[in-house]
Amino acid sequence: MAFAKRHGLLESHRVLMLRANCIRPNPRQPRKLFDADDLHELAESIRLYGVLQPLTVRKLENGAYELVAGERRLRASRLAGLDEVPCILLGADEQQSALIALIENLQRCDLDFFEEAEGIRRLIRQFGLSQEEAARRIGKSQSALANKLRLLRHPQEVVAAIREHGLTERHARALLRLDEAEDRDAVMETIIERRLNVAQTDEYIDAYLATAEPAREAVPEVSHARDKIRTLYVFKDIRLFLNTVSHALDVVRRAGIPADYDKAEVGDEIILTIKVPKRV
After folding, report:
1. 118 an active-site residue?
2. DSSP string of 206-231?
């Protein structure tokens, strides 16, 4: 509502009671994913206490009311069986409605990073904004906005996998470094299987790119190049394992346990000896 007040969009401070089934959804709503369990929990809360924060609507030329912000509350209200919902009326046009819907979701952290990027792209395309103007209107730097939009280069199957496995926006940005779909799929599979954090992912992609490019340039020796890639992957995996052991021992030491370990390389093997006292 702060945006609306700042831009003089409030037509009335009165709360209107409107029929829930007669409010048109906002076609510019950036949020597309609504968790069913979350909606049912909110619906139960609304059954008990009502809608505590009014929805925001605008009046169309034909007299109908269109939702500006509050789709989650509207959906939950319908689930709760409410006939009417409290609404505040805004004198907003299409562009202002789209902007308010996007900003409300950003402020509430309701959007995942792909929905946020898609909402920004839709805003730019629909109203002919430059990236600089769009960034100013939603309160982001132009570089941050450009980085968001780059995420939309991922195909839908990659977006779905990133969402399904809970990878972060920084994971998604790191994967953009891989131009070939085959490379991206192989690296993403490794990230998911080994649960690599962002730093580990960046290291892994560095290793992949360092060996994959020579492999493509020297086609007759591609088999040898792939062996080299696998060898480097194994080496990187060993480093990750050793770093994990070292970190675990640091945690134990900070807890007051004088644990220690020794590392020795014997031939093709690395021998770790971990020493932990029986009694502390």
Report:
1. no
2. HHHHHHHHHHHH-GGGHHHHHHHHHH
